[in-house]
Design brief:
Length: 375
């Protein structure tokens, strides 16, 4: 980024592409252009790259290569998980459980099944810190429950749900469990067996790879109908010629994430906490859990101004008031309101998310600018 560019504090919205990722993509836009399904040499080169990347994604998640389905991004991954399982198991039941602060890709898909296909959907409440109580999941499940979908990390607050406890409840009832881990993969360690999940969504542009590519982890044996029908790519689970250049970049990004995680997490958490202290000393209030959240995320409010006004007064900072897909709205975040946060506090919230290239001087300059704007 240029030295005179705004300080980038919107890594949860999207991440810059890592230079190593960009370099890996380039040859597959020109020299290695073959269709990976073709039987000639050009196809073989593309197919080998596809296989290598699939292994890199699986290695980061702790799954097997044949459990990785490449998608066009996180929203498609969520749709494939929910629609695919619900339709595969519709003869067994028609009840889906999710929670109120999910990503719109999950909430809208569940609403479609509820209003158009006759499914019953239970949306679990969260507490004041944004957490789901596992007991509410146990109480909500019925003999007709076929799927539970609860996100790993919230995209606005960074709050990390107790996925291991939640998935154990679903598994004890024989119910498929999906988690949207688009915000957590690459920011914290994510291992599918540790979490106990059957399906897990990844979005490449949240971990320094391009937009428009992602993956759905599907544990072997999990029932899943395809949503996109065609020639049978991705072992029949997602038709369409694979986006080889971006998949190659995605794979490299996953390799880098695994290599850098032990260094990135403590460094970024320390910067996030430094920013938090500077703002808290001036009366700003944290939204979300103080501990169980992503190490890079700070959702914080200055009551008395709305978040959009604060950001308008700080053009030297690139941040957001919440999820990027909701940017520009002047009403409070539904995620924060679902947590029971007062209207004025929710209206004054901004999301500051740090990443691989955030520096200490960036944090200090941002704190000074926000302090001026919020006073």
């Amino acid at each position: 980024m240029k030295l005179d560019s705004p300080i980038y504090l919107d890594y949860n919205g999207t991440t810059p592409i890592d230079p190593q990722v960009a370099a890996a993509i380039a040859p597959y836009l020109t020299e290695h252009f073959g269709n990976p399904s073709s039987s000639h040499a050009y196809g073989h080169a593309a197919g080998e790259a596809l296989s290598a990347a699939r292994g890199q994604v699986a290695d980061l998640l702790g799954g097997l290569p044949n459990e990785i389905v490449f998608t066009a991004g996180g929203s498609e991954g969520d749709n494939l998980a929910i629609q695919g399982v619900a339709m595969a198991l519709k003869d067994r039941g028609n009840h889906i459980v999710t929670q109120q602060t999910e990503h719109p890709a999950v909430l809208a898909t569940c609403r479609y099944f509820e209003t158009r296909l006759g499914f019953e959907v239970t949306r679990l409440a969260v507490d004041g810190t944004g957490l789901v109580d596992p007991q509410t999941l146990a109480d909500a499940m019925t003999a007709r429950t076929v799927l539970v979908s609860i996100m790993h990390a919230n995209n606005e607050t960074g709050v990390l749900q107790p996925i291991r406890a939640l998935s154990a409840i679903a598994r004890s009832r024989g119910v498929v469990f999906h988690t949207d881990a688009a915000q957590s993969v690459g920011k914290v360690a994510v291992h599918v067996d540790d979490l106990g999940v059957d399906l897990l969504t990844v979005a490449a542009h949240k971990l320094y790879a391009p937009k428009g590519i992602g993956a759905l982890y599907v544990r072997s044996g999990t029932p899943l109908n395809p949503v996109i029908h065609g020639a049978g790519q991705e072992n029949g689970r997602r038709a369409g010629t694979e986006n080889v250049p971006y998949i190659v970049g995605f794979g490299v990004a996953c390799r880098l994430a695994k290599e850098k995680l032990d260094v990135d997490i403590p460094r970024i958490r320390a910067l996030r906490d430094r920013l938090h202290r500077r703002l808290a000393d001036r009366g700003w209030v944290l939204n979300g859990h103080p501990v169980e959240r992503l190490p890079n995320t700070l959702n914080i409010s200055s009551t008395g101004l709305d978040g959009e006004q604060i950001l308008a007064r700080t053009p030297e900072i690139a941040a957001s008031t919440g999820a990027a897909c909701h940017a520009g709205r002047t009403d409070p975040s539904s995620v924060l309101l679902s947590m029971g946060i007062p209207h004025a506090q929710a209206l004054g919230a901004i999301r500051l998310s740090l990443g691989r290239w955030t520096r200490e001087e960036d944090v200090d300059r941002a704190a000074e600018a926000l302090t001026r704007a919020g006073s």
